Amino acid sequence: MLAENAARHDAASGSSRSAARVTNSPQGKVQEFETRILDALHHRVGKNERAAKPHDWYNAAVLALRDDIIDKWFASTARTHEAAGKRVYYLSLEFLIGRLLRDALSNLGCNRVMEQALERHGLDLARLEELEPDAALGNGGLGRLAACFMESLASLDIPAFGYGIRYINGMFRQRIDEGWQVELPETWLAHGNPWEFERRESAYLIGFGGEVTSDQGAIRWAPAEQIEATAVDTPVVGWQGKRVNTLRLWTANALDPIQLAAFNAGDHAGALAGQVRADTLVRVLYPADSTAAGQELRLRQEFFFSSASIQDIVRRHVQYHGDIRTLPDKAAIQLNDTHPSVAVAELMRLLMDEHHLTFAESWDITRATIGYTNHTLLPEALESWPLPLFERMLPRHMQIIYAINANVLREARRAGLDDAAIAAISLIDEHGERRVRMANLAFVGAHSVNGVAALHTGLMKETVFADLHKLYPTRINNKTNGVTPRRWLHQSNPRLTGLVREAIGDGFIADAERLSDLAAMAGDAALGERVDEVKRANKVDLSNHLRELTGLRLDPDALFDVQIKRIHEYKRQLLNLIETVALYDQIRSHPERDWVPRVKIFGGKAAPTYHNAKLIIKLANDIARRINSDPSVGEVLKVVFVPNYNVSLAEKIIPAADLSEQISTAGMEASGTGNMKFAFNGALTIGTLDGANIEIMDRVGRDNIVIFGLTAEEVAATRAKGYNPREVIESSHELAQAVKCIADGVFSPDEPDRYRGLMDALMQSDWFMVAADFDAYAAAQRDVDARWQNRAGWRKSAIMNIANVGWFSSDRTISEYAREIWGVK
Length: 825
Prior knowledge:
This protein has 825 residues and is an alpha/beta fold. It folds into 3 domains: 1-83 and 104-128, no CATH class; 84-98 and 134-480 and 815-822, Rossmann fold (3-Layer(aba) Sandwich), CATH 3.40.50; 485-716 and 770-808, Rossmann fold. A 9-stranded mixed beta sheet has the order 5-8-9-2-1-10-11-15-16, sandwiched between helices. The radius of gyration is 27 Å and the shape is globular. Helix content is 49%, strand content 15%.
């Protein structure tokens, strides 16, 4: 397509800047940074010191720092080409990278130098950092994991490209109006992005529709519509600047952005229709797919970024290595969840139609190159598309999928699988409306399929991929998720980082598992008190921030109980809220008791079309309004819903948390990474035996975590024997009273029946086992109260969490991927 335009473009192999360094002394470095900032302000921002506003200084600071990053970027790319080794390609529909300035400064060791250079002009680096918008490139854990992985790949000196979409508005900006979520465009690119570089020469044509013809055995796809994908690159800096990798995001343009004849004839909308169709591909993350038009846009979006990425990978390989047959030796492609699954068919198309390999050759190359990470057991998240839609939009790919399916089903028949197993394995779901199963396509098209926690991986083998596991018994493996300690400990919690450094030295900075040296000191009373002081200082900072944000005064000496994550029924914010109502009732009924003051902090976004999730947000705000204005509870209980939860807010909230709520229905959370971030920062987990909670418990010890509720096996058994939630609710006085209060409008006097349907559903079905786990959860919360009142014991548990979660560093996770899946050093 446009591959010939991409001949010489990878990180532009320019030479390093020739500007000489002033001196290596501390003050000399500050002087040099100041000079570079002023130069950027004058010559690249176009302002002098008197006219410059804070956003001008922010841009100048980024541009000055970026020069060093670019030099390291060039050097990293040159080393990769010289070594002619293997490169990792990580395809993800989300990259929740957050703010980059502090990340880059920290990894390059330039924080103090930049801070002092700006102080000379009366500027506060921390305030300038706050001006950087969060990149709207993701929604939740999936996107943040991808960002952590990219940072760890660079920190471990592994050559890598991340591939995604440069969303103009991303998910959405959440505003809370009278307790309701309101979705607004996230305009993070309104004033440009100083971190990115457009690569106009890296452009590819992405086709849709049309027809497929054959001429003497040569297959030709003639798309009815073509859109140009253009690369926009962002450098990703590893620890100590060891390597700078590339996050390559695709933007879309029509080949004919305006039809002048139509425009001049007065058909202004029609004249711009092509560019509008292109813009929709990169406008919003996860367009609602509840309508036919929404489904089409979602599939177009996934194919757009997958095709551009695969074309770029193949072009680069041929350019630098020649023989396409050696692709598996030089490239490892990892599909982050099911969204990029169509990449399997696209790689097959390029190998067969453009490089003229046989189906068998192409299939061997594809499977040897691609790996697939599954992140969910929820059937609705294992994407499938109506067959007519898929065939109309991607006719050649549909042919290839049929060919792959025939090959796989013959293999299954030879292996002796029965008709039911073969039907489950098929890439085409024949039950009712025929649909293309994208998770099955990713599974059969990969040499490795990994889960992201031990429990999740085991359940994959037993449930959603049980029959595929029978056919390919060695393909599924586990890679428990991790988070980067650079972002989630060193940068977000400098007070705790400094204290740990004093206690055990610097070793943990480069190797998080060295945090284990703290374990021997967990009982040290003086250290425990200092950890408590750090936590309280972080809580003061958060309280001040939330007061500015919401107007609510919070007591930093209260227990900060936090549940911040995507709003979904399986994550069970509703369980937390119902228990909050029960606690509120108990506090009012028994004022004589010595209640532990508690602040309940909620945050998260609900998908715009997810009615129950949005209703849960409204319930949280209604409960907060009632409790926070009730003088009978005073400062004993406060509830706050933090609007527009994002990475930057997480960096403020997590270091201040005392209790981490990880209370999903057992068997439904693949892993979780918030649980790891909280533990790194000394919060105790209250949670079910789900996802990575199990592995956290194994490492921190059962005495240092609060576990409750049904196991995954018990959840399945309870459903199988006929679960009656009404009976469970009526047998629990506290639960029944809380449910009745919510259903009868105690918290919604303006609309008494607002939550009746939500509570009726709980009484009738309760798929997520809220009622089944309520009594155990309430008892666990009273156990938390008792632990909190034993201050020495709580401090010891907090230290034991910090000391024993270094294994959950994304460096460890990426090392396992590199060694066991990708075959890179």
